[in-house]
Amino acid sequence: MELKWKIKPFEALTVHELYDLLKLRSEIFVVEQNCVYLDLDGKDKKGLHLIGEYDGKIVAYTRLFDAGISFDNASIGRVVVDANYRDRKWGHDLMRESIAAIKENFGKDQITIGAQLYLKKFYESHGFVQSSEMYLEDDIEHIEMIRG
């Protein structure tokens, strides 16, 4: 069984989808990474939400922005795959879908991300190049990367 992809603006998310994607983000970014931070940063309403579902459950997700919201370029953020499904390498599918969605919805080729440093090689495999020194965000090492 493959992932089923859908992309929605904030207003089109159902209450159940919103709850499930926020739960997934919290499970990974707060609990798994042991990082206390405010996930609800006010940007969800400004972006598109790419959802990957498997057997009716949200297991992959990114938040997509046009240029000027998070970075000067279009951007991909809150990249997450449910820990129970990471062995399926769906992170690569998620990035391919995210890059295509940026092009299709915003008409942009240049994409900037704030990547966790340990995922540098993963993002490089999708055409991203490091464009900043390492910086700490919520006590986690990050780098800025650009594609395009």
Tell me what the structure shows.
The protein is globular. It has helices spanning 15-32, 90-106, 120-124, and strands spanning 4-9, 48-54, 57-65, 74-81, 111-116, 128-130, 135-137, 140-147. Strands 1, 2, 3, 4, 5, 6, 7 and 8 form an eight-stranded mixed β-sheet that branches. The protein is 27% helix and 34% strand. The model has no long low-confidence stretch (mean pLDDT 96). With 148 residues, it is of the alpha+beta class. The protein has one domain (4-110): Gcn5-related N-acetyltransferase (GNAT) (Aminopeptidase).
Annotation keywords:
Aminopeptidase, 148 residues, eight-stranded mixed β-sheet, alpha+beta, 27% helix, globular
Please sum up the structure shown.
This protein has 148 residues and is an alpha+beta fold. The protein has 3 helices and 8 strands. It has a single domain (4-110), classed as Aminopeptidase.
Number of domains: 1
Q: Structural class given helices, strands, pairing?
A: alpha+beta
State the end-to-end CA separation. Answer: 32 Å
Task: Tell me the Rg in angstroms.
Answer: 14 Å
- Identify the CATH architecture: 3-Layer(aba) Sandwich
Hey, roughly how much beta strand do the residues contain? 25-35%
Mean pLDDT: 96
Alpha plus pi helix count: 3
SSE map:
Elements (H helix, E strand, L loop, with lengths): L3 E6 L5 H18 L15 E7 L2 E9 L8 E8 L8 H17 L4 E6 L3 H5 L3 E3 L4 E3 L2 E8 L1
